Predict the structure of Probable transmembrane ascorbate ferrireductase 4 isoform X2.
Amino acid sequence: MVSVPFSSLFLQVSARLSACIVALLVVIWALYFKTSFIPRSSSQEDLIYAILHPLLMVIGFILVSGEAILVHRWLPGSRNLKKSVHLCLQGLALGSGVFGIWTKFHSQEGIVANFYSLHSWMGLICITLFGAQWLLGFLNFWHKGEVRTTRVRVLSWHVFLGLYTYALAVVTAETGLLEKLTFLQTRGDVLRRCTESMVVNGLGLGLALLSGIVILAAVSPKHEAPHFKMMYTNNKWLSSQ
């Protein structure tokens, strides 16, 4: 029976705790400080969309996709079961990301008005890469016509692009937090030293910590290497576990 390494268990627990802290902070920011999301149009519908954007992109996109990455590390069962859960969670994250971007472009200001910053450009690039990655993963790992050698060749690229896209999503969220907080502070709506600033800064630190833990857990070995000890018997060195 193979036991779960302590380091792997520690990373999984740390990832869940970090995810809970991030979710709590983004909910507090979006709901308790919702006056910071009031749009120029003063439309109640646009306000709802503005509040939904950080919730969908952080919880629905980043947290769910991070959990999908960790599925292969903690979920017991067959490989097909793990791939099914991984595919469903990534599909849920993709849907949340698409709807989250749509909430910004659905306002009365139009698409062009919201497509001017580095954050918006990176967001579109990230969601496009994520969608292509999900589609290619589905075709290569679920399509029965693909031979095993093709899947083996694609697997390393699939893992790399998946982790790269996840990291890009976190960086995009960080640029969005910085852009929003800088705008609020420049306009005088939020002080540099206040509760909301602390919440947003804490959210940014939480995302940075979470992404590091998830990526480390993804690239770490699944099981500890067996320990061997050498014994000298009958003029020969023998190894035993």
